[in-house]
Amino acid sequence: MTASNGLVLGIETSCDDTAVALVDPEGTVVSAAVASQALIHTRFGGVYPEVASRAHIDKILPTVRMVIEDAGINPRELTAIGVTRGPGLVGSLMVGVDTATGLGHGWNVPVVGVNHLRGHLRSADLEARRVTYPAVILLVSGGHTLLAHMANPREITLIGNTRDDSVGEAYDKVARMLGLGYPGGPVVDKLAFSGRPQVTFPRPMIDVGLEFSFSGLKTAVMYYLAKAHDARPEDVAAAFVEACMDVLVAKCRRALLTHPAASLVVVGGVAASPQLRTEAKALCDEVGVDLCLPPLKWSTDNGAMIGLATWDYLATGNSAPLVPRPGLSIEDY
Ligand code: KG4
Ligand code: ZN
Question: From the CB of 172, is ligand 1 less than 6 Å away?
Fold first, then answer.
């Protein structure tokens, strides 16, 4: 029996980034690396699943090696390996799960299958504990847009989901329409700062409930661009971002007013949006709750959040089958 070094290796391959990190139980990130596929997918304007799986196969072992060597640790002394088992692209998940399983056998280290969405939740506690309970969670990414309530770290209830597209997907599709490449979020946000909304795009389902719908907004932008040939891209971006923010803020306000909450936790790739960070802060000041945000670098997919979630699984004894599950909900382990 070898001594444990008190670290977990987190591996994330659910979509288009091969991300690996070493994390301690407090959420301190000892080393981390991401092999981004953005350059590969930019010519498609979105993620091409088969190409993503192949890129993960090429990058995963070199990325693991880099993280281990950077930290100068012996991998046989890891407490565990945590790997995303879902939700995500099945081929991409398979590369992560199979590689983690092989490494676990080779190093004689336990392997834990982790829900990617629970990883995003924990990203807000990386490098410092921030989340206060009970909490309302807004999870906004390329694959998901949802609201959840957390009575405590273990009790998670889904309270609102998207009926169609996610907000990140809408950003990515609008970026493609404007010829801005992939991922669309950062570039659309940046462009929006230099534009003025000259048109009011729809705010789908803004007045009712906690569910979202972004496909109509995306289509409205498409129809507008088809007829407004001389529209300035920065103005279109500004009008689009304004519509997204209005909807996200209205839904968060409703969730905070109808559920017990000490904090609002905003996580997922779109939590990197400076506009969303500013609007969420104003809302939290208005309602009188804490705003908990992950550090910018841990907002988009990363291995550190999977590593920190793995410590929760180890503490509670929750283990899930080590097989890819493309359709997991936030309530699942
Ligand atoms: O969480 P994430 O990295 O991957 C998924 O789990 O889907 O989220 C990726 C999404 C993409 O749609 C990307 O365009 C969006 O997050 N995103 C942003 C920003 N940075 C990334 N959206 C808005 N503003 C940003 N700065
Ligand atoms: Zn994600």
Answer: yes
Q: Which residues pair with 80 in a beta bridge?
A: 8
Residue 149 pairs in a beta bridge with 136, 157
pLDDT of 206: 98
pLDDT for the residue 2: 61
The share of the chain scoring above pLDDT 90, in percent, equals: 92
What atom in ligand 1 is closest to the CA of residue 300?
3
- The residues, any chain, with a CB within 8 Å of residue 229's CB and separated by 6 or more, are none
Q: How many whole angstroms from 265 Cα to the centroid of ligand 1?
A: 16
Distance CA 12, CA 60 (A): 9
pTM, two decimal places? 0.96
- The minimum-distance atom of ligand 1 relative to the CA of 120 is 1
Residue 329 has pLDDT above 60, yes or no: yes
pLDDT of residue 40: 87
Helix H or strand E segment including 70: helix 49-71
- Cα separation, 58 vs 18, whole angstroms: 10
**168 Cα–ligand 1 center, Å:** 5
Whether 165 lines ligand 1, by a CB cut-off of 6 Å, is no
Structural tokens at position 238? 């500004």
**119 pocket-lining for ligand 1 (C-beta < 6 Å):** no
Supply φ then ψ for residue 205, to 5 degrees.
55, 25
Q: Kindly report each contact of residues 162-167 with a partner whose C-beta sits within 8 Å and lies 24 or more positions away, as own/partner.
A: 162/211, 162/212, 162/213, 162/214, 163/211, 163/212, 163/213, 164/213, 164/214, 164/215, 165/213, 165/214, 165/215, 165/218, 166/140, 166/141, 166/142, 166/214, 167/140, 167/212, 167/214, 167/244, 167/248, 167/270
Q: Closest ligand to 174 CA? A: 1
Does 186 contact ligand 1 (Cβ within 6 A)? Answer: yes
Beta strands 8-12 and 17-23 are antiparallel
Nearby residues of 311 by Cβ (< 8 Å), 6 or more positions away: 8, 23, 25
